[in-house]
Design a protein that fits this description.
It is found in: Cytoplasm. It comes from Pseudobacteriovorax antillogorgiicola. GO terms for molecular function: ATP binding; ATP hydrolysis activity; ATP-dependent protein folding chaperone; unfolded protein binding. With 639 residues, the chain is an alpha+beta fold. The chain has four domains: 237 residues, Histidine kinase-like ATPase, C-terminal domain (Heat Shock Protein 90); 134 residues, Ribosomal Protein S5, domain 2 (2-Layer Sandwich); 79 residues, Rossmann fold, CATH 3.40.50; 115 residues, Up-down Bundle (Four Helix Bundle (Hemerythrin (Met), subunit A)), CATH 1.20.120. It is 36% helix and 21% strand. It has 21 helices and 22 strands. The strands form four sheets. A nine-stranded mixed sheet has the order 1-6-5-4-7-3-2-8-9, with helices on one face. A hairpin with a 4-residue loop joins strand 2 and strand 3. Helix 17 crosses helix 20. The longest helix has 24 residues. The chain starts with a strand and ends with a helix.
Amino acid sequence: MAKETKQFQAEVKEILDLMVHSLYSHREIFLRELVSNASDALDKLRFEEAANSELKTSGAEKHIRLTPNKDEKTLTISDTGVGMSYDEVLENLGTIARSGTKEFLKKAKDLQDSPELIGQFGVGFYSSFMVADKVTVVTQKAGLDEAVIWESTGDGSFSIDKTTRPEGNGTTITLHLKDFGDDESAQDFTDQWTLKSTIKKYSDFIDFPIKMEVVREEPELDKDDKPIEGKTKTTIEDETLNSRKAVWLKDPSQVSEEEYNEFYKHVTHDWSEPTERIYYKAEGAQEFTALMFIPSQQPFDYNYRDTKWGLSLYVNRVFIMDNCEELLPPYFRFVKGVIEANDLSLNVSREILQKDRQIQAIKKAVVSKLIRSLKQMMSKDREKYEGIWKNFGATLKEGLANDVGNKDKLQDLALFHSNETGALTTLKEYVERMKEKQKEIYYITGESIKQVECSPYLEMLKEKGFEVLYCVDPVDEWVMQSIAKYDEKDLRSITKEGLELDDEDEKKAKEKEIKTKEKEYKGLIDTIQGAVAENVKEVKISPRLVDSPCCLVSGAYDPSARMERMMEAMGQSMPKSKRIMEINPDHPVFAKMKGLTEDKQKVWAEILYNQALLTEGSPIEDPLKFSKQIASLMTETNA
């Protein structure tokens, strides 16, 4: 049969133009696509052999081979797979009949940002033209004696003829590599290290060995096996480039702990062992396999704003996407691992991937599995769970504020420090320990345990024996407001107004006492109010202080002082709300103040206000003035 020259289908011309002119920064993708195609061909041959015991094949080992040639500037990818007939070559390499092609072309402009998924549309072969100015394909279908040669320079046409393939069934693709000149981003795909690292990145878990002859330079040895200076010898070895250890597809009972740990280190580059491993195989309407790990420590860049996170996505063992954030909510960003979803319908842009129903279904199932696993761990191995909470609890709590659907489940996983016990406690455990007369769940937010445990806000609660949760993670300002109620009991910040600690009889007695004190100290209260009126909306007798002279309380619906500080630190300053200044009239300082002049009372009022700011962790507006006031007070003979 004579050699024929044919024109590409119109859609192929568009795709070739896209490959050649648009995807400059992602050229290495071509190798993943060609290796993936070769793996598919080997899979198909294995199926054909199982279905037809009479099928005539070469009997060669099922493998994929890379052959770089620096002198000729070529790279050859060959396999011993099922191969293609003449008609199949025309169908697969000259036209595109897949329904995904038109969608691919519609979204073509997105590929410059996210070209990772081109193979999902059956056009992966054409990525060869990103790196080659001529591509030659020699292929022989299993069961046939003749081969086909296909060749194109990507200019809109191709040639096709019949030939022979000495190796028998399989396909050989030879890429005549382009010269990219001064392009510093261009990789040399005849370089052994480049090929090894690309295979490791994209195709490490392909089921078939990917082989390459590796040239090694070794020192020549003398008779005593010592290196001879200046003399080397060249050896050529056949090396398998991929590990083939897709452990997530194996039955967990057949995988050792060492294999799992090795795999974890490979995918995360974390050389410590993980704290927990979670395996999940979903079957039915949505089929996928997930192998996830929880690290034993925070990565060094964990809290960096630009740190990437998410699971690695594989389809038929082929790496599709790293850091796939669409598979996990942000509050599980500490979880590492892989998901294989062979039936996944992917598209070319992450924006569309976010909206994919299958992805959302996988995400929902994975989150449910993670929550169940953590709950089980909390019940069976509290020590291990608390270790995870120490590292990632602040992250996990974000889900309480952001994931309404899982809020009830997540709040049972939350752990808190408290003034009652040195150990971490759950909300459920807190409720079980509540005093008979206690109506609400009390908490305080702050910068650290050390700061809040000495807070004046705790004084009356300690006296009554009421437990208070210490919330010292920045996210707690949002989290505790999101929970609002647990087990029919309100959560109450002890730094806000409206704190009621007494039963009815105690309340009546306290109200009577406060009214008496208000009359007694009315003049002083008015003076203090006038002195701090710029920052304080009200001065009143406190129901919560025992030993401290005063404290600043936020309105029931106002942001806390800590929230204001945090927002300001993030560059999102908000109008400062005036606070309520609560005073303890039983403290000796107020009896002393009553005997001072009004001017002195105002100075002392300012000192007390600034002391209250420091006590809660807020900065004072004029530190120099405050220092002078304290120094002056210390030097007074009657102080």
